[in-house]
Amino acid sequence: METELPHQAEHGGNSQTNSSDRTYTVEQILYDLFDVDAATLIERRHQGTTVDGLETGHVDMIVTGMVTSFSASQRVIQHAAQLGANVIIAHEGLFYSHQDQRDQLLDDPVYKQKLQLIEQTNMHIIRLHDAIHREERDEVMEGLLRRLEWCNQVVEETSTHTIVELPQAIQLDHLAAEIKQQLSATYIRLSGQVEQQCQRIGVLVGYRGSAALGLPLLSREDVDVLIVGEGPEWELPEYVRDAVEQGRAKALIMIGHAESELPGMQWLAERLASRYNSINVSYVANEPVFRLV
Ligand SMILES: [Zn+2]
Questions:
Q1: In whole angstroms, what is the distance from residue 273 CA to residue 276 CA?
Q2: Counting C-beta atoms within 10 Å of the first and last residue's C-beta, which end of the chain has fewer, N or C?
Q3: Residues 102 and 143 both lie in one domain
Q4: Is it the case that residue 157 has pLDDT exceeding 80?
Q5: 245 C-alpha vs ligand 1 centroid, how far in Å?
């Protein structure tokens, strides 16, 4: 199971031969990732039923190397080209919107220069969002739990959250320091009292740090702290502020959207590398999106 790609189990794979000289087209990679042909995928993107699929390039191109990343930033594209790769599998949208809305960007200099770089480097950018967050097994969540070494501590799992119970309670600031170290993050943010004991932890990756998803968890008596990617600052953090003011032991750790999801993309690169012997696959990290001053 551990080397399985999204949807590989369902269709059995069309690239079972794993010889070191085999070549693959972009279309084959798409099929392995999404379990549908390229035309169906394009149609689904047009219909808006998925954001997944090929964002730039042609399906019949031979893959020279692949890179996975949280986002296909200018720097990641340059780095991928230097590595000899012509495919990037990125989790988030290429042009700063979830549904790839480009209307307001058409005359934008940043957009135009990035497009130019994509053309110059002949980069094929695949968005892998919905398929890796799939309901039966969210591999972004799993990637984070693996990184934090919490896979054996899961006591509750739904399509949006996981609850972990640590063998022993740990002080909030120690917990935060541990997470920061495991993620090699430059910073993470926390809200709550640093001396609070934490044992039951709710985990919500990506943009799931909203009150709608987080509050029902945090208000539960058996949940001490939430770890989220990102969410509105006036929702859960304000709830924690009031809860602490009332003397309650509730806390929130906001690790950042990318930080919560990049372990999943890094794990994907490992699985792709073992699946495609003849293709160089690597994970390329972005710089943190914010700098603390
Ligand atoms: Zn995500």
A1: 5
A2: C
A3: no
A4: yes
A5: 33
